[in-house]
Amino acid sequence: MGTPDHSVPTHGVVHDNVRHTANFTVVGNHLAQHPHLSLLAIGLGLHIQSVRSGTPVDIKSLAARFKEGTARISASLRELEAHGYLHRERVRTPTGRIVTRTISCNQPKHRRQAADTGCPDQPARPAVERPSQPRPRGTRLRKALPAVPQPSCTAPALLQAATDLLATLRRHDSRLLLSASDTAHLAPGVAAWLERDVRSTAVRQALTAGLPDEPLRRPAALLAHRLADQLPPPAPPGAQVSATPPPPRYPLRNCDGCDRGFRAPEARTHCRDCRTTAAAHS
Length: 282
Prior knowledge:
two-stranded antiparallel ribbon, Arc Repressor Mutant, subunit A, mainly alpha, 10 helices, single chain
């Protein structure tokens, strides 16, 4: 028998490590041992940090790679997003298609606030360093909006229908006038409802019903909370769920050219025939 090694613990894990020299990823223990993330979210975060840039990490691609299923993967992605390890944004391609870009951050506390796609370990410094200007007294930093559900379908028509629905909420309650950035943040959450076979009228009712009487300090945050907290379950198997919801029913208005009644958005003042005639003479 050899001499016992008293440096080796008698219980718990014993590491038999070999130093990696190629094909490895450096991952922080703040993720690997995160006290609040689920085990699936930690594993998914480690996987996403290990793949090459450009690798698809959407829900369908991950569900095809792993066996946990779309519901559990979607929930884990939301966990990672809530703790800053993922940032998902909608971008328009040169062809006009709207796609989701996922940004993986290996150090959430140091994620750069500028409009780039990197997540450096340290914030970028300006070319010429200047003393930081104090923030004017009385101003407050804008808090980030809560995360919203993400749809599995990113069809442009679905996102446009969600954007149009959000833009009409102010007609039901003037306090729900949303900025363009707030609308872009909330649109995926509305799209997640629409793809679950929830009609736009039902989504609008869920967002506007029972609002408090007092002024709304952060209407977009309230809507984000409702979209996540009241998200209905997916449509039952076999249900015919259309990726493109039915078009909105616009109000009836009179044409400024021929006074004929027609349905169109508020910005349109002439019927189709008058627009065609005007285009032919232009």
